[in-house]
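Issue: copy button drops trailing tokens. Both records pasted manually instead:
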Amino acid sequence: MLGPVQTRSVSPVFVGRTEELNSLNEALSRAAAGEPQALLLGGEAGVGKTRLVEEFATAACRQGAVVALGGCVEIGADGLPFAPFSTALRALHRALPAEFAEAAAGQEEELARLLPEMGEGLPARRTGRHDEESLARLFELTARLLERVAAERTVVVALEDLHWADASTRHLLAYLFRTLRTGRLVVLATYRADDIHRRHPLRPLLAELDRLRTVRRIELGRFTRDEVSRQIAGILATEPHPGQVDDIFERSDGNAFFVEELAVCATEGCGTGLTDSLRDLLLVRVEGLPESTQRVARVVAEGGSTVEYRLLAAVSGLAEDDLIEALRAAVNANILSPAPDGDGYRFRHSLVREAVADDLLPGERSRLNRRYAEALDADPTLVPADERVMRLASYWYHAQDPAKALPAVLDASVTARRRHAYAEQLRLLERAMELWDTAPEDIRAALRPVDFTEVYPPCGCDPATTPLRYLDLMAEAAVAGRLGGERERALKITKRALHLLEDDGDPLRAAWFWVQRSHLVQGLARGDGWTELATAEELVRGLPPSEVHAEVLSNFANWSMVHCPGPEAVTAAERAVEYARMVGAREIEMNACLTNAGLAVESGDVEAGLAEMFEILRQTLDDGLTTVASRVYVNLPNSLEAIGRSREAIPILEEGLDYARRFRLSDKEAWIWGNLAESLYSLGRWDQAADAAVRAELVGRSARPRGFHAANRATLALARGELSEAARHLTAARGYFGSHDRAPQHDLPLSALAIGVAAGEGRLLDARAELERVLDTGFSPGTQRYAWPLLLTAATTEADSLGLPVAEQDRSKILDRIREAARPLATNAPVWLAHERWLRAELLRAESADTPDHWSEAVTAFEPLERPYDLARVRHRLAQALLFAPGGAEQPDRDRATELLRLAHAAADHLGARPLADAVTLLAQRARLTLRAAQSPAGDEDPARSLGLTGRERDVLRLVALGRTNRQIAEELFISPKTASVHVSNILAKLTVSGRGEAAAVAHRLGLFPERALHAPVTE
């Protein structure tokens, strides 16, 4: 474990806080049992947060826990990116070197962004394109690292002063609090509550964390009079006079730090004449120190949260003996204290540092910052290497020297980007833009493009010889804002850039910014991004091939594939591939190829499109193009699901999950989980589908994958008859997707759900209104996958409402509109053809014109497909048509209907589809049919027949129990593989099991096939 936790408190007695300390100890006990704990500790400045953490950490160490402390570092008004996590991870690395190394194995290069020493001795870092998953990868790695380190040992990570945290630290903490699931881990963060004004950046995070049931928030209040009395007694080592207690309690208002200051002042005789001003109270003891000590205090106050001794010596200008004497006086007076690592000094309390810094004159502040910067320029070893660039940029900026500050700030922005600290990179680039006009011309002329901004043309020529331009800074800042989640600020920057480009005559630059604006308005749910992309496409039209041109076309094609697939999208994708190949932009080429393959599947060239997708997956995996490969793992199974080949999609999705986890692509993982839930639902594995949908919610960070998850859960809830749950998830999904971007792949399923929920709640007119809104818009080519289920839901609603007075008005018009909308939809995939047959039968049912033949066609179409829920529904309707055919049902029809209802009921019961099961039961009761198979005479009972299995299904089950595949079963029984598959699906439904292995186990358990019968030949 770590050594004893260092205390910085004057009072030797820990007073009060019993309830709060019990809460922390309870969290430690739960963590030790394997349940990760997340806690927030808030309170005003000086109320005793640090002291409470010290007491808790000491107690945790006594119980064998490893405690790692990290504090947010303030340099002037700046926070170092990831500073508290870097400090805490460094402490863990020192305390548990073997466990840490094992947990980080294989990910050292990425984790070096938080802990630079982990990258020592590794080959030069690979360069790659930054994307919106980069930060998520780093966050996921950090979470899993902590879980692994805490797998066998209780670990406490305490992060102090969250009110100073940089944006990247805040985002990482939020991610940890949302995603930690295993490990003996406590994550505790403290913040100063009185600093959290309405616009403080920590305020939204606290609100978000308050909504998480896994996060506990502890508010630390002020001391009572009795507690103040005990604290004073501990400081003075004697019982205080009641009058003194009353005076200090009144003046301190129970604030622990103020109590200490007032008590010490009273002891030292400096209490008389103190004003009630907080600043004066904090400064009174500093002003009582020797002048040299006050001077050192002012230097330390401006240097940051902690100042290294060698740096302090260089800046103070004092002889070493004089400096040591001044420091000793400050430490003895409890103004300064040695830093925890023993290599510097810090103020014992940040309030005192702020008061001393606020007391500096304007010229004095800039002069001190200049001296800090000059000292660091002269000797970079004065501070840790991973802090030098950021601190130098801050010192030069606050020194108000644009000539020095601009290059330093740009260097720091590159460092922030390499650490995926995009929010800090954006802040630094905004400072660079602020400094640009005031920096001398010769300084600006010597600058070069600072980093790699996707495909943006840095200067339109060789970046090594052409000076940096202001627009280049804006491009860097726009990408940093998008990648860091600061889309609002990034959008403002792109708008300013486009305004500057209006008279510039540079179409490539303008097109690039229009593409950025498209991404941003979509991310902010301000629009669908089409206007921006169309503008970009118009700007590059006719220009020679370039990366920007290829990127514009690739984005144009991808947008069209999602929103309105058609010939224009195909043309754009093909041109993007051609241009990308010309300029050697491999990643853009592969992205455009993938879009083109997806368009091929949607247009009907299914096998060619799928083959192209498989080839792209192979190539991108070989080339290490993780962004494109992860997109293939989303799109390829999605295309398979679209054409009804759900079972083929499952292994690809499982492989994709492993890939996304390995590269920490959290949003891609969420999409894959959502696709997996969809395919599992189709296959009738609903419990597994529900689990997959929940996993999608847990890992997804962006709105759209979370909207997809909510839609999946709404679909499942609706099928199970849980209307209120379905409505709740539908509302959530619409909130995630927004109302400005109605992409068919999201909008049509939500509309189908809205119609289904409205119908379930008896709101027929609302269901019709939703349908007419969709029909007024129409279906884009290639959207048949979503259009067929929506039209079917609407037709079923109309058929179910037949005979209701409210349904008669406009019924004919609605049915005609459904037929007209269905006419151009593609049916070249078996699943789409099956839906066409079903829709036709439902429309006839809505007109009381359906016959058993219509429903037989639908059943026949669905039987070869692995869609047990859909098959059960059409079987139910066929049984209904047989039983209530004009002229009455003959006995053969009743027998056939009985078998259909038994199959439908078995499937509905297995799936938990309560509305379908109830409808089947009600129909059987009306027709006086028994859903259970008739029992054989005693002593002659066949267990297979008691389960409702036909003779052919009995033969199939025997071969399943022997481990035969569908093809082998087909060969042995002289039937087609598809028919064998249908029999297997029926058997699984009747036995209420989810797989062949379970079916074989049931057969063995019930003794359906004695050993000799298992291998007996089949007889007709």
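Record 2 (pasted manually too):
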Amino acid sequence: MHDDRSLVEARLERALRQFLRPAQYADRMPLVLSVWHVPGEPVPVDQALQGAYEPFTTGTVWGKPWSTSWFRIEGRVPEEWAGRRVEVVIDPGFTGDGPGFQAEGLLYDAAGVPLKGIHPRNRHLTVASPARGGEAVHLLLEAAANPAVLHGFEPTFLGDVLTAGDRPIYRFAAADLAVLDEDVWGLVIDVEVLSELMYELDADRPRRHEILRALENMLDALDLHDVSGTAAAARAELTDVLARPASASAHRISAAGHAHIDSAWLWPLRETVRKASRTFANVTALAQGYPELVFACSQAQQYAWVKEHQPHIWERIKKAVENGNWAPVGSMWVESDANMPGGEALARQIIHGKRFFAQELGVETEEIWLPDSFGYTAAFPQLAKLAGVRWFLTQKLSWNQSNKMPHHTFWWEGIDGTRVFTHFPPVDTYNSQFHGRELAHAERNFADKGRATRSLVPFGWGDGGGGPTRDMLEKARRLRSLEGSPRVEIEKPSAFFAAAEEEYGAHAPVWSGELYLELHRATYTTQAKTKQGNRRSEHALREAELWCTAAAVRDPSYAYPYDALDRLWKTVLLHQFHDILPGSSIAWVHREARETYARVLAELEEITTAAVRALGPGSPAVLNASPYARTEVVGDKLVTVPGLGSSAVSAAVGEEVRAEQNGDTILLENRWLRATVDRDGLLSSVRDRVADREVLSGPGNLLQLHPDHPNAWDAWDIDRHYRRKHTDLTAAESVELVESGPLRATVRVVRAFGRSRVTQEIRLTAASRRLDIVTDIDWQESEKVLKAAFPLDVHAERSAAEIQFGHVHRPTHTNTGWDAARFEICAHRWLRVAEESYGVAVLNDSTYGHDVTRTPHEHGLGTTLRLTLLRAPHSPDPETDLGTHRFTYALLPGAGVGDAVAEGLALNLPLRSATAPSLEPLVSVDNPAVTIESVKLAEDRGGDVVVRLYESRGGRARATLTTGFPVARAEVTDLLERPLHEAPSEFWLRPFQILTLRLRPA
């Protein structure tokens, strides 16, 4: 037989493109349009119903960037269409971009009830099936003129309503009544399913040829000039090949409808409220025609928005949950970044997420669902288990630049040894369309074949929302059991996880430690003020809850601000979304984030001030929100304050610092350190006087400027080649001793480079082992990255970086591709390197990006620690990070892990001066390896005190908790404060173990 496959395939492709797809709508007639262009921000439908509408014709331009237009759409079904399926089909000017990245809309009925979203792959609304003829059509379309921002990562000012301009960007193409020819539509789905499968089968497989010949017979039966009249006969030619069942060994795919909706990204937060509404309306409408649909939906915040703004859709969601069409998943307030949120914040993500789903929808979610976050902290398994979460899902690791993950289903082991059953779908997308190529890839790519037989496929349009479509559901019906294809079963993710764990749990491999994404490493640094706002808000919330709890315990009349703290926590949690905190959103998002953090911090300051006032009368005092006692310089006094307590300010006594200038060098010295600043303002020496050793192996606090041109993903990526070139910023305009003791010694260094200017104050105080570098910078560079380097005379095989509730070790060498890929790493408040008996830490108050390298010097091998301070990418925000910044980082010689923990907290929780009584700690523990993370009142508002603590040094710890108030009952609880058992008077913690205690005041 001659090989004519390519000819038949080309014939098929043209017929599908030119004749079949266009014939799905048999008849059309235009509808009558009128429009009201909203003058400002979006308005609710009741206001739109009162708008001043004017006639509008298709072909007219509309929509300046980010504007909203409401279209009235009116008409009547022709009598001759009786008995047929009639739909409204709308094209407000769709471009080639996918759903969620261009114009989109929500259809309402004449009374203002939301019906269904409109996007490029879902343009229809069914009017009647079958139609009687004569039905009136009265609709409202809320159309959003959202611009497409991301084009080859080129700079654009479309990403902020303030700079996007006024030129209309869309031309309204059509609003029609149309008859859907269901035979033709069904034929199109049949052909797509079979042809996509055929192309994935090897050429020597009989099944491929059987499909090809069936499709050829279909073409023969089809009259391309009468597609509608011959579609049924053409479909009959495909019946047999569609009826062939999948083999018994076919890969099993559990499919869950999905619509990844970024809570902000290339659109502002306010637009996500509408994106969620459009998508959720689509899904609930789709479920009416496809009762097998299961839609997996995460992010409690988006549910809360829809509940507030679209009560009709909210009621439909609740009904869909009851009917089994809707599966709340994820257990988190948002799909947050999974590296940078602090420990307590990550706990609150889960607490608030699970509580919302339980209280509002009666669902106890059992999985973490983070398909798109940029790497995953090794603290997650323990947090998940403590919250009653059994399973974890991610997709993003398929984006790794260098190394392919060896497993798709595995046990993920956290830093404390807790394991969570984890799945990483081999389909390599969370936006599947059931294309044959995707399903074949899932089967081929699945790394656990032989012992495991199933994987998960999230299907539906996503990133900008959209969700599953009827075409996808039709494909799924045909793919349920089809020879040559994996079996497809639509079901809840929990059903997949339970079956996968039962099948494979006893044999699944273990991945230990962080799930590091070998991409998007610059997200630890980009948009510095967003990251600083997050860090300061987290610590301000910690402080506010502490002193509010102290006030509530001391004064029964004090009203603990439950509602305000709940609202502020949720605001901070929202801004930890994985495109806000990482700095990868448009300028509008980050402008609003800066404004929001300022409001959050101002309100928390008011709350904390009021709580301190409620502690009672007193004298000038200093309050310490850290769990560790501190001796610090405050004003002109040296004060010692207990952890989580307060002390009256007393006269300065004891330690002193001295400073002197000798020619071109300046010496700063106290009991612990001797630091020398040279004529260029660099640290030429830092000597640890206690250990009697030099800390540095080269100039310290050396600012280094690199070109920063990633291959793609400007805001997200810092590529390895940036290291090939840099400039050491050694020239100083001035180096001046501005304070010389006895409590503080400060050297001020001023530098100018490019178009930027930086002032740094190198500070040593009388009571500190820490050398602080307070930095003010006017940053005006373009596509550069600024690093601060500390070459240390420490031979370190690994670094230790603080993460949530502990720390993670990473090799300093690059022996393997996995090690080499970690050329930029995330750390919270501290990063430490050490030899057997000596360590040095670098601390910070607002950044997360760092790098660590092994550095030979004339006396041996050292280690260089660098903080990544600022970047200046141009996409998606063309003016990222330009402007003034103020932050502090510090060098801590002779640092054990416990010192790094305590001093990292001290740097991020400044002592508070106020008029207050001297207070013993509200709570304390007798082992410094046990760190108190948070003190608050219980979420159920019953008045109990909740204390969360953890072992922070990586060893076993025995401790006793002491309270500054009488306790009637003490219980150990889960993360959600649900009692587990009575708390012992003395407890043992394993390495990095988290413990939550609930205390009933007597």
